[in-house]
Design a protein that fits this description.
46% helix; 25% strand; alpha+beta; 5-stranded antiparallel sheet; 28 strands
Length: 775
């Protein structure tokens, strides 16, 4: 018996030694796992931040290239028009370009003294801005091939922005002045905000000098707004010379520990003197919050396992369930990030593709399928089938660009080609991509990239090219008619080209009365006054006039003339006549094209109602009208309740259909001619009610609630009820200085927040407690 007890004791001791050893080994394994999981969490977050920075870089690059193209286009015409003293003729063109490019606010032309001689905004014409740093910078540089990027500054219109500058030269090669494009801060705020996949993510756009252009959300970086300080992440990234950098540590703004991705946006083709730096960051504590939760849970499991060794299997199963829960949470986070990335791509109208270079298998998203005319669910073309649909003239160049990147000779490939749409017509595809996977020998295995449908842009370019070729041919073959009139004899002498322009028989002798009668009445007045000034004051003229030829054709001509002086006395007139009808017609065609482009930029592609840009423009205009007329202005901010749950439950395709139905219902509630319904963003709408006070706005808000309630659009995932419902914030005010239109938006938005806080499916009026539920 004593031996048995001793053996039992020894067995118990051995069991405890085994248990202690297992617990110790388990502790080591758990510590290693948690340490490794911490590293993986940081890697995942860094990958998200880098992807967001690249999205901003891509959109920023598109805006910079568009603005640069506009600057070069305007600059190329500046020297000629400056020589002719007609720089102001570029004003309407710059206005059209500034309106057509969402990222550009203002375009200006400066002369060599820094005076604004042409502008898309008439209020700055004639200003002397030679003291501005960007003018001095461009004048000192003097290179017409360089795109000068100014440091952020406050413009003459009191807007904090950045100028893109191109130098233009006089005919003798001397410095003639500059052409500038001022970036629109509101556009870049929307761009930066579009990649905020979490509430605590911060995105900043910084000039290469270190001066902050814009941050979303805003953060205090000091009075001088410059982050190029000693030991700052920005300075380390800039001095490293790398395109991308990752940092973890305290930031200068508030010493908060953050994970920071930095990317230098250097557009090589633009020859920028200073690039931008995009930073996307997130608090380290927020990144590691799930990991700390896992750490606490693992410690608890370990204690329970040690205390209840007889229930080890159950504890193991519980740990497995816990780890599965953590894995699912990570998967949910990944899906949420993918959805946010998809929204960003959707806003940029980009389609995603992925190519297996070994098998030729292509994987694309719905937008890429739509570009090619494929319906959702249809088999995706493999690489050979896709190439077979390419235009023969473009296939070789596209294949060469892809092979160059696969061979590692280019960082990425960018190509434009025509693709046969399933409907039979050709569409232009702008493809961008790069190798994302290689084997150990460096052979390319996988490529990933984006598609963009640029058919409309290519059509416009082709039309402009054809117009340019036509103008060139007409310039080569055009002839200018010469004429001479002797005041002493009253006789005229014409060249043969004069007869051709006027479609007269060359045998007919020129007659002054017949010549003047051919002009339109208003042109007769202008020409007669010019002739009198030439005879009486010895001044020349240069006029564009309308006339009817001998065959009844109405044409436009350019008439130039000057006095013939002998011994100080005007004895005759001489000049030229040229048919410029084609240029007049080109101006009309271009105006029509610009008006079409203007309509396209103000419409929301999904719902067909006004977009955010139209809302901002209408708000500004109606606010000024309200200030002039002393009338109130009301705004309804409308949000579909729990729309994310709707998308999660029904899918994004049905979610888009829901947005369209709600937009149609809201449009039916806008009864007055001036009421303006716009899609403010995502599932949020805005209704602008000029001349409406708070009581009138309440009536419209209740009508919106009732219309959606009557429609009974199913929403099984909503905790509010079984149907789609709205939350509405209502605000009305009189426009007075120094209050800005944004104040009305802020009040309506605050009321919308209170409507959500009070249970949704209702409206709340700003600074009032009264509310109404949907019937």
């Amino acid at each position: 018996m004593p031996h048995a007890k001793a053996d039992l004791g020894r067995q118990h001791r051995r069991q405890w030694l085994v248990v202690l050893a297992l617990l110790a080994a388990l502790a080591v394994v758990m510590a290693y796992f948690l340490h490794n999981e911490r590293g993986l969490a940081l890697e995942r977050e860094q990958s998200r931040l880098r992807a967001s920075a690249r999205v901003v870089d891509e959109n920023l690059g598109q805006q910079l290239r568009g603005a640069n193209a506009a600057l070069v286009n305007v600059r190329d015409d500046t020297r000629q028009l400056n020589a002719e003293g007609e720089l102001l003729r570029l004003t309407w063109r710059m206005q059209a370009l500034a309106d057509a490019m969402p990222g550009v606010r203002t375009m200006l032309i400066f002369d060599a003294q820094g005076i604004v001689v042409a502008s898309s905004r008439p209020e700055v014409l004639g200003l002397d801005l030679s003291h501005r740093a960007y003018f001095q910078q461009a004048k000192a540089g003097g290179s017409p091939d360089t795109l000068y990027v100014s440091e952020p500054f406050t413009t003459a219109l009191n807007v904090y922005s950045v100028n893109l500058v191109r130098v233009w030269k006089q005919a003798d090669g001397s410095f003639g002045g500059i052409v500038t494009a001022t970036l629109d801060p509101s556009y870049f705020e929307v761009l930066l905000r579009s990649v905020l996949y979490e509430n605590d993510v911060r995105t900043t756009l910084i000039h290469h000098s270190g001066t902050v252009f814009m941050g979303v959300p805003a953060v205090n970086v000091g009075s001088n707004r410059n982050v190029a300080r000693s030991a700052s992440f920005f300075l380390q990234h800039r001095e490293s010379g790398r395109i991308e950098s990752m940092f973890i540590g305290p930031v200068l703004a508030n010493a908060e520990e953050r994970v920071v991705a930095m990317r230098t946006s250097q557009q090589q083709s633009l020859h920028m003197d200073h690039p931008f730096v995009v930073t996307v960051s997130r608090p380290l504590a927020a990144v590691l919050a799930p990991w700390y939760e896992a750490l606490e849970l693992s410690a608890l499991l370990y204690v329970l396992l040690a205390a209840m060794v007889v229930l080890g299997l159950q504890l193991l199963q519980r740990q497995q369930r816990t780890m599965t829960s953590l894995r699912l949470e990570r998967e949910r986070e990944t899906r949420a990030y993918a959805e946010r990335l998809d929204l960003a791509l959707d806003g940029a109208q980009l389609g995603l593709w992925d190519l297996d270079l070994q098998t030729g298998k292509r994987t694309v998203d719905a937008r890429a399928q739509e570009m090619a005319g494929d319906r959702p669910g249809e088999p995706v073309d493999d690489m050979d089938q896709w190439v077979a649909r390419c235009h023969p003239d473009d296939a070789q160049a596209s294949r060469q660009a892809r092979n160059e990147n696969a061979a590692g000779r280019t960082e990425a490939f960018v190509t434009d080609y025509r693709l046969r749409h399933k409907d039979g017509h050709w569409v232009w595809i702008h493809a961008r991509g790069k190798v994302t996977l290689r084997d150990d020998s460096g052979r390319a295995l996988r490529m990933t990239g984006t598609y963009l449908d640029v058919t409309e842009r290519k059509n416009v370019e082709a039309q402009l090219k054809r117009s340019a070729e036509l103008l060139a041919r007409m310039s080569r073959v055009s002839r200018t008619g010469g004429w001479d009139f002797d005041l002493r004899t009253g006789r005229s002498t014409w060249s043969s080209e004069m007869y051709r322009i006027r479609e007269l028989d060359p045998s007919v002798e020129p007659d002054q009365q017949v010549m003047m009668a051919a002009y339109a009445p208003e042109s007769q007045v202008l020409l007669a006054a010019a002739r009198e000034a030439a005879i009486g004051q010895q001044t020349p003229w240069d006029l564009e006039l309308q006339m009817t030829t001998a065959k009844g054709n109405v044409i436009w001509v350019r008439s130039q003339g000057e006095p013939v002086v002998e011994n100080g006395e005007v004895v005759g007139l001489t000049g030229t006549l040229k048919n410029v009808t084609w240029r007049k017609q080109s101006q009309i065609d271009l105006k029509i094209a610009n008006e079409k482009l203007e309509r396209l930029t103000l419409s929301d592609g999904l719902t067909g109602i006004g977009n955010r840009r139209l809302f901002d423009r209408s708000l500004q205009a109606e606010y000024l009208r309200s200030a002039r007329n002393g009338l109130p202005l009301a705004l309804l901010m409308i949000d579909i309740d729990h729309f994310k749950r709707y998308n999660d439950h029904y899918g994004h395709a049905q979610g888009d259909d829901c947005l369209r139905q709600v937009a149609q219902l809201l449009a039916g509630c806008c009864k007055r001619a001036g009421d303006q319904l716009c899609r403010y963003g995502g599932e949020e709408f805005a209704i602008l009610l000029p001349g409406a006070d708070s009581a009138s706005a309440r009536v419209v808000a209740q009508a919106c609630l009732d219309a959606v309630a009557r429609a009974q659009l199913a929403h099984a995932a909503s905790p509010v009820g079984p149907h789609v419902s709205l939350s509405i914030g209502v605000a009305s005010m009189l426009a007075v200085t120094p209050v800005t239109p944004q104040s009305l938006v802020e009040r309506a938005d605050a009321a919308l927040y209170r409507a959500k806080h009070q249970g949704r499916a209702r409206f709340v009026v700003a600074q009032e407690e009264a509310l109404a539920r949907a019937a």
